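Aim 2, interim progress. The first record below pairs a target sequence with its structure tokens.
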Amino acid sequence: MPAVPREADILAALDTVMDPELHRSLVAAGMIKDLAIAEGAVRFTLELTSPACPLRESLRAAAEEAVRAVPGVSDVAVTVTARVPNSQESDLLPGVRNIIAVASGKGGVGKSTVAANLAVALARSGSAVGLLDLDIYGPSVPLLFGVDEQPEMDPERQKIFPIEREGVALMSLGFLMDPEQAVIWRGPMVAGAVQQLLRDVEWGDLDYLVVDLPPGTGDTQLSLAQLVPLTGVVIVTTAQDAALTIATKALQMFRAMKVPVLGIVENMSTFVCPGCGTETPIFGHEGAGETAASRLRVPFLGRIPLTAEIVVDGDLGLPTVAAHPDTPQGDAFTALAGKVAGVVSASAVMQGACRR
């Protein structure tokens, strides 16, 4: 008599398939849904923790292979979906599941470019994403996305609606002020602006809100960390000694405020020659970002090359991951988004913070 697969047999097989980012099996992580067995045909849903998961196909294939090995299984159909874990709850941002700050110790390391492309890469994966520009004195988001208009407002509810570009909901103080007007504010006014941009914007339901912070360790960083529970912070640096030293200070500041550090990304890691494609380390410290991440015991999220297209795309108001997705720089930003989403998911699952 032919073997008849049971639900327990299928789950036992799937329990051997590990998610290398979560360090848990698919069953233990609660990723197997809607399991059905009919005359040897097995169907189930594999629910990933982010649409940006870079392991999507490998996990699906491993799950299918494990089930096919169960005696009596004649067919396997796997549907892959994603549901982003919720790592924060706040009255200011009730519909936002994760808040990811992007910070740097010093200016000039391309932090805003990384934040913009990270947000677009996450959105291109299928996630609902917002980008909040909190660089009060030097907002870059209007330029990076080519926005020269003011957002719409609801006067009755006193709410501002984000401007959408490349599938990302955008908000910046730069949308509300003359682009040539300097912001001359003391600390309390900056703190008030941070609160307003969180409270008065109709963000809606988002999987990720990426927050572009100003460089350094000042009032904006302190205000944000005090107002909302941050999922974590991404530290952007270059391979310069000065940048790495000051990035370390920024990282230690967030640790002191009990904000998880999601990892370090090394921007402008190499210069890619537009003529021959040769990569040259600009700052002469190849691998310095990864070494720093190891020393500080945080994940290394990857290297972003410097190319002429990144600069030109930024000037044209189109993030390079949208303008040139199938290029080394586009691939690097897409990989960064996958790494960040993976670290966020792992942190949420390990802390039991996945609120369905």
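The second target in this work package is listed in the same format:
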Amino acid sequence: MEPLTREKFNQNLEKRVERVIMEYKLLENGDKVAVALSGGKDSVLTLHLLHRFQEDFNLQLVAISIDEGISGYRDRGLKIARENASKLKIELVEKSFSDELDIKLDQISSLYKSTCIPCGVFRRYLLNKSAYEWGADKLATGHNLDDEIQSFLMSFARADFRRFSKFGPKLQKIHPKLVPRIKPLWKIPEKNVGIWAVLNGVEVHFAECPYSHQSLRAKLKSYLNNLEEKSPGTKMMLLESFRKTFKQQESLLELVECESCGEPSSLNICKACEMREYIDSFEF
């Protein structure tokens, strides 16, 4: 077996991502793409890869970072996000729960069994809103192979079948104010993302969120990693199984505009506004 070199690893990684981009038409010539940039390894790799393909597709790029308000954790990620965006000469738009929603995640963590629930809702809300305001055609996220499988199994376990249409490397435009998401790392294992950062000496935020242990995701991640170690290739087979068996068209979803904030929603009041009303009923 030939020794692993940085050049060969990078070439293989780029080819795998390029195949997904071409097969699913994630990018089109002249696209304006907003990249969700947390400073973690997945989002940083996504930013670097899109920068690598920028000239090929004549892309306009912007990075968007969200400060959830997690003491002792988010500051480091934001610093790394700024450094990477600056290095690649990509504009960085910074938003925060505090400025936009008048809350901090640390403030409301005790109100939910899993803090990841409100965090996910508000992050998606602000990312889409910010990308739309910038005029983005696509919103690129750092979801990798492991993330996709974990998310699907979580939805499957909860019988949340409506979310099945949200899986896959590309979501179609199903509402004028909902920016379609693309996932360039859709077939890249999380382990390979970490190897990329180390081999290339790229500064990333490796620390795990202090609230991540509360989520079902953490348990699934451990289980799937053990399964993959015993039976290599299991994760990819699971992904292919999901893709073939649970393919569901986004056109089945009907979105309206939230009666409170005007953002796209499957309900009359979006989940973000519903949560904000609940949170406002408490005194901090």
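The two ends are 60 Å apart (CA to CA). This observation will shape the mutagenesis plan for the next reporting period.
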